[in-house]
């Protein structure tokens, strides 16, 4: 089994993501990650799904998904030529300023971002 990355451009309507994931489920694929974001105009969305499976079966899945009404385009991306990132939002409480600096140092080492940090705990 190999890693598959499938990218969709879809109409931004309720139920589209459900229909896509349900089709993938019916084909017995397990979704490893899924990302969706609305387009600038708001009438389309970009969805990216990663899963593991047989490449030939994935090609058949892509063909079937491409026939769905709300999907504008679907393509399989080469995982070796695709930049993939993970995101985590972590809330950390510490009263020790040195521990906070150490945590920020680790975050910076891995090129992470901090949306906010305060010296004193939030109340």
Features:
4 strands; 123 residues; Alpha-Beta Plaits; alpha+beta; four-stranded antiparallel beta sheet
Can you tell me about this structure?
- This protein is of the alpha+beta class and 123 residues long.
- It has two domains: 2-81, ACT domain (Alpha-Beta Plaits); 87-123, no CATH class.
- The chain has helices at 16-26, 55-66, 97-109; strands at 2-11, 30-38, 44-53, 71-77.
- Strands 2-3-1-4 form a four-stranded antiparallel β-sheet, with helices on one face.
- It is elongated and about 55 Å long.
- The N and C termini lie far apart (49 Å).
Rg, nearest Å: 19 Å
Q: How many angstroms separate the termini? A: 49 Å
Helical coverage, percent range? 25-40%
Sheet having the most strands: 4 strands, antiparallel
What is the gist of this entry?
The protein has three helices and four strands; from the N terminus they run βαββαβα. By secondary structure, the chain is α+β, with helices and mostly antiparallel strands. The chain has two domains: 2-81, ACT domain (Alpha-Beta Plaits, 2-Layer Sandwich); 87-123, no CATH class.
What topology emerges from the helices and strands here?
Elements: E1 2-11, H1 16-26, E2 30-38, E3 44-53, H2 55-66, E4 71-77, H3 97-109
Antiparallel strand pairs: 1-3, 1-4, 2-3
């Amino acid at each position: 089994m190999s890693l598959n990355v499938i990218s969709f451009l879809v109409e931004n309507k309720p139920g589209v993501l459900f229909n896509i994931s349900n089709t993938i489920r019916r084909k017995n694929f397990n979704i490893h990650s899924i990302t969706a974001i609305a387009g600038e105009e708001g009438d389309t969305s970009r969805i990216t799904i990663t899963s593991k499976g047989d490449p030939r079966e994935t090609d058949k899945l892509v063909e079937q998904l491409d026939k769905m009404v709300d999907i504008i385009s679907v393509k399989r991306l080469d995982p070796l030529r695709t930049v993939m990132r993970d995101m985590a939002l972590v809330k950390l409480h510490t009263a020790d300023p040195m521990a906070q600096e150490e945590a920020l140092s680790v975050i910076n080492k891995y090129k992470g971002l901090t949306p906010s940090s305060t010296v004193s705990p939030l109340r």
